[in-house]
Amino acid sequence: MVTVPDISLNNGIAIPQFGFGVFQVEPEKTADVLGTAFEAGYRHIDTAQMYGNEEGVGRAIAASGIPRDELFVTTKLNNDGHGHDNAITALDESLRKLGLDRVDLYLIHWPCPAENRYVETWKGFEKIAADGRARAIGVSNFQIPHLERLAAETGTVPAVNQIELHPHLPQEELRAYHREHGIATEAWSPIAQGGELLADERLVGLAQKYGKSPAQIVLRWHVQLGNIVFPKSVTPARITENIDVYGFELADDDMATIGELDNGRRTGPNPDDFG
Predict the structure, then answer these.
(1) C-alpha distances in angstroms, 177 versus 158, 174, 181?
(2) Backbone dihedral region for residue 129 (phi beyond 0: left; psi -120 to 50: alpha; all else: beta)
(3) Domain residue ranges in the chain
(4) Which tens digit of pLDDT belongs to each residue from 140-188?
(5) Element counts in the chain: helices (H) and strands (E)
(6) Closest CA to 238 of 222, 219, 258, 259
(7) DSSP secondary structure string for all residues of 175-186
(8) pLDDT value for 146
């Protein structure tokens, strides 16, 4: 079983750098898939109200026998839940489904800038943190202008910003902003849904050099950049393979080669437009 190192968030809370994402995992399969992940060493679970599988996550946690303080559980506010009071009520429902009295991290899933309520929502998140029902609060898919509004109009810096991030979209400017302001970077779609990225001959060559899969090469790139990462898979062998990235290190020139894969291509929506 792989042991994953922790990263310290800006409020002192420790978060495992490598986690398991359950995006698009069917609700009825979630508990079994997470059981496999727990056996492989995953202790960080990333779910969301939008995914519709929080109850499956709760069943897996209850069945695991793992002490609660050894698990790190993240969920995210649905886009129809913006607003101070709505955000608080939505977490009540998530906690009920998860079978927990608190989450370790609660995120605004999308800023939905056209709705223009994310600052009000964030103030609800501050109340949630003050009440101890989330050990840390953060955001997802926020751009620099969104983060700057939070800084100007509220008193709490997000612990994390979870963004689409992979070699085709390395988000260097946004990651630099995070470093400057003490915001941890979490990467969703870390291998760009596989396919074209993992077939790139440069990655295939690096995989052969290190005796690893192309996906492991990309995930190791994330780890060395300091990103928090949580690939998703429902295949037991892939679940075990993905987390096995702590026994080798990419050379600086190989990190640079992966950096050259940047083409600005997203696999998901643009945060400035979505929602």
Answers:
(1) 12, 5, 6
(2) alpha
(3) 6-259
(4) 999 999 999 999 999 999 999 999 999 999 999 999 999 999 999 999 9
(5) 11, 10
(6) 219
(7) HHHHHHHT-EEE
(8) 98
**pLDDT tier at 30, thresholds 50, 70, 90:** very high
Q: Which residues participate in catalysis according to the annotation?
A: 51
What does the block give as tokens for 254?
């190989």
Average pLDDT of the chain, as a whole number = 97
Which of 194, 235, 214 has its CA nearest to residue 25? 235
- Phi then psi for residue 153, to 5 deg, are -115, -5
Give the closest residue to 9 by CA, choosing from 113, 164, 138. Answer: 138
Short-list 211, 212, 220, 208, CA closest to 251: 220
Mean pLDDT along residues 31-54: 96
Judge contact between 58 and 100, C-beta under 8 A.
Answer: yes
C-alpha span between 21 and 256 (Å, rounded): 27
Q: Which CATH superfamily is domain 6-259 in?
A: NADP-dependent oxidoreductase domain (3.20.20.100)
Residue from 213, 205, 258, 221 nearest 239 by CA:
213
Whether the pLDDT of residue 193 is over 90: the answer is: no
Residue 11 Cα distances to 17, 126, 160, 175, 253, angstroms: 16, 13, 11, 19, 34
CA angle 60, 62, 64 (to 5 degrees): 65
Longest CA span, the chain: 53
Alpha carbon separation from 39 to 32, 35, 232, 253 (Å, rounded): 11, 6, 15, 34
User: What count of residues does the chain have?
Assistant: 275
Cβ atoms of residues 37 and 1 within 8 Å: no
Select from 169, 153, 158, 81 the least CA-distant residue to 121: 81
Q: Which of 50, 40, 272, 259 is nearest to 142 (CA)?
A: 272
Whose tokens are 């489904």? That residue is 97
